[in-house]
Amino acid sequence: MHYMIAFNELPDDFAKRQDPDAAGPYWGAWNAYMGAMGQAGVMVQGNGLLPPDTASTVRLRNGQREVHDGPFADTKEQLAGYCIIDVADLDAALDWAAKSPAALTGSVEVRPVMPPPNA
Amino acid sequence: MRENPAGLPRDHAELVARDSYGKLLALIARRTRDVAAAEDALSEAFAAALNSWSENGVPSNPQAWLLTVARRNAGQAFRKGMVRQNAQHVIEMMHDEAQSNTGSDRVDDRLRLLFVCAHPAIAPDIRTPLMLQTVLGVDAARIGRSFFVKDSTMGQRLVRAKAKMRDAGIPFDMPEPTDLPARLNDVMAAIYAAFTIGWSDLDAYAENGQDFVDEALFLARLVVDALQMQAEPKGLLSLMLYCEARRPARTGTDGGFVPLAEQDSTLWSRDMIRYAENWLRRAAALGTPGRYQTEAAIQSYHVQLSQSPDLPGDALLKLYDALITQTESLGAAIARAAAYARCGRPEAALAQLDSLPLGLIQDHQPFWVARATILAAYGHFDDAAAAFDTAIAKTNDPALRSFLTQKRKMTLTT
């Protein structure tokens, strides 16, 4: 089955990306994690995302486009990246999710990718 | 086998349904990885059995017949695209059928399904109902009643939980041994709930009740075997054996309910009590106390009390004090209050009852019985009468109802 694992991070985690002291360990942990998934052959695709202050959200209401600055929900934890992985079942997906650096400080959401409609 | 084509096959199908529903469902669900689809396939198989068995007689192995038909139904549903599932599992199921292999290995399929239903990705409050429905075959309405939830609400929550299991890809394999202890509490809660449902139904619909009791004892033994280093499954088995040992004394010759204190202890099963004591000893030897061991120890106290009536009450109160730190069960809190009242400590008893949240107790019949008894014992007859009336209004079981009515009369006129 294909699962999306979505990594949510705290503001502190996002800040580490720019912090000269913390950036090394931060990226090292992510590279090791992504590398392990690649090595295990479970990675289908995945991307990191720039911080939530670069996000823009758009809605179409009564034919009018409404754009606002920031992510769709103003919560403490914010989406920091995602992967699509191909594993046997939920337990395998949860195991990979638990190994991610985001699991230590933020949270990781695991969701099945919608299967193709029945022929 | 056609002596009675009208009656016999139906009886037979019902018998197989009672004996093997959980086992058959667990076998099919393991392959479909879809509990709802497995339930549909199995109920179609039972319907087909009623037709086919009255035409052709009851097959020599009714369970194998049902399993084959149900698997074929599940396969057809898959091919028609009615069921979304992993093709690999359906192919394995077809393979099982071709091999006419029951698909079982060393682990009992019911045990496996119990632990699957306790998966941490399933909402905690629906795990026990899910196990009761799938493994023990208790219907949603009955589950709703014992969890004080409306039938329709319980039904919807069960449907949602089964959809989550299927769509999220929760594995139907036995969890790793390291994951078992974390799931154990939910599994034990379901087994104990089945036992309690069986017990409280025994007067109302005798046969069904005994099935739940037997199944609960059987499953508890499986859990004891699977997790030998865990004390609590042994405590649970011991607790249920103590209760079961006393069952012959629970109903009077007139079919009326007889409370523990008034039971004729010569009617208790000595063999079962010995087994219960043995399991409790083995549990205690592991040195990890818990709720079920404490409850079993309370039962053990009552057995000893029947032999030596001057046993100090303090020991019992200590057990109850321990129990309410180990479980949030309402029953435990109420039983503790009753024990304090029996030991001449009414203030402590009423304080315990008054500390319970109103939302939990207002529909809880045992609470009102305990409150009525304690109030009456200390001369508050008007309040006691009101509490008895509430308790009687909340009782469905006819034997218990007439017991309470009589008790109300006796308590309030002496």
- Major sheet: arrangement of strands of chain A: 2-5-1-6
Please state the average pLDDT score of chain A: 94
What does the radius of gyration of chain B come to?
Answer: 23 Å
In one word, what is the shape of chain A? Answer: flat
Query: What is the typical, i.e. mean, pLDDT of chain B?
Result: 84
Structural class of chain A: alpha+beta
Q: β content of chain B, as a range?
A: under 5%
Instruction: Work out the helix count of chain B.
Output: 20
Largest beta sheet of chain A, briefly?
A: 4 strands, antiparallel
Oligomer: heterodimer
Strand content of chain A: 25-35%
* Helix percentage range of chain B: over 70%
Q: What is the global morphology of chain B? A: globular
Q: Give the N-terminus to C-terminus distance of chain A in angstroms.
A: 18 Å
Task: Provide a descriptive summary of the structure in words.
Chain A has helices at 11-16, 20-40, 90-99, 101-105; strands at residues 2-9, 43-48, 56-61, 64-69, 78-86, 107-112. Chain A has 119 residues and is of the alpha+beta class. In chain A, strand 3 and strand 4 form a beta hairpin. The mean pLDDT of chain A is 94. With 414 residues, chain B is mostly helical. Chain B has helices spanning 8-32, 35-56, 62-79, 87-98, 109-117, 124-134, 140-146, 151-167, 180-201, 206-226, 232-245, 270-284, 291-307, 313-326, 330-342, 346-354, 358-361, 365-377, 381-393, 398-413. The longest helix of chain B is centred in the first third of the chain and has 25 residues, at 8-32. Chain B is globular and about 70 Å long.
